[in-house]
């Protein structure tokens, strides 16, 4: 990380996260006091073995799941202090999430999938569509605005998911193995676009990937082992 990055304000922070899953009598302690700090505009990659808890960590950071212990702060505000019913709107405005599985809405076309996320963040239908169209254009999807997910290729679905994550110009983008199901050339292009589009907007970007070369493009690299980031 360069000196300048060090002076930027922290936009996402986790302190002492502990997460345990129980199945029957078995307990798995996935996270054991995980700490994390992400600064404005910073890029960070996280690698770790399958099952080490990377997706679990992202879910906690996004407030989709709750930790047993520890706290997550969005721009200094403890997630625990945000009332349940305010969370979806706050999350949509603050954070974009590119999931390991894309989770596009099958009944909606590309444009509607992206515009929907802007609606959740409180934008008017017109504004939402305009923003969605701009971003999809930047990602090379202008010709696919009215295709539904089942009519798209894997790479096109992934780019739609990326547009959805970026449409509200969030402070933070979390991407969980966003190129998992793509061929090498498409994966390369998608990663390039993720870094370019978030870089242009000074979005802090956290990339979870198994690919060392993609991980190496981030300013800072961490590994999740034994429930902690190193
Ligand atoms: N809802 C759940 N109930 C029980 N166990 C779970 C649940 N979610 C995750 N786990 C377990 O927690 C561990 C961490 O899972 P997680 O999905 O975070 O791993 P990961 O690092 O993202 O792996 P991958 O690289 O394969 O995506 C795994 O052992 C998994 O089986
Ligand atoms: Mg995972």
Structure commentary:
By secondary structure, the protein is α/β, with parallel strands linked by helices. The chain has one domain (42-63, 84-229): P-loop containing nucleotide triphosphate hydrolases (Rossmann fold), CATH 3.40.50. The chain is built from 8 helices and 10 strands. It has a 6-stranded mixed β-sheet with strand order 6-7-8-3-9-10, sandwiched between helices. Strands 2-1-4-5 form a 4-stranded antiparallel β-sheet. Helix 4 packs across helix 5 (125-138), helix 4 packs parallel to helix 6 (154-166) and helix 6 (154-166) packs parallel to helix 7 (184-200). The radius of gyration is 17 Å and the shape is globular. Residues 54-55, 100, 176 line the site of magnesium ion.
Topology:
Elements: H1 3-7, E1 10-23, E2 26-39, E3 43-47, H2 54-61, E4 69-74, E5 77-78, H3 87-94, E6 95-98, H4 110-120, H5 125-138, H6 154-166, E7 172-176, H7 184-200, E8 204-208, H8 212-215, E9 220-225, E10 228-229
Parallel strand pairs: 3-8, 3-9, 6-7, 7-8
Antiparallel strand pairs: 1-2, 1-4, 4-5, 9-10
Bound molecules: adenosine-5'-triphosphate (ATP) and magnesium ion.
Average predicted local confidence, pLDDT: 93
Which kinds of small molecule does this entry bind, naming each only once? adenosine-5'-triphosphate, magnesium ion
Number of helices: 8
What are the low-pLDDT stretches, counting only 5+ consecutive residues below 50? none
Q: What strand order characterises the main sheet?
A: 6-7-8-3-9-10
Give the CATH class: Alpha Beta
Listing every helix as H and every strand as E from the N terminus to the C terminus, the arrangement reads HEEEHEEHEHHHEHEHEE
Distance between the termini: 15 Å
- Helix- and strand-based class? alpha/beta
Shape: globular
Q: What's the architecture in CATH terms?
A: 3-Layer(aba) Sandwich
Strand fraction equals 25-35%
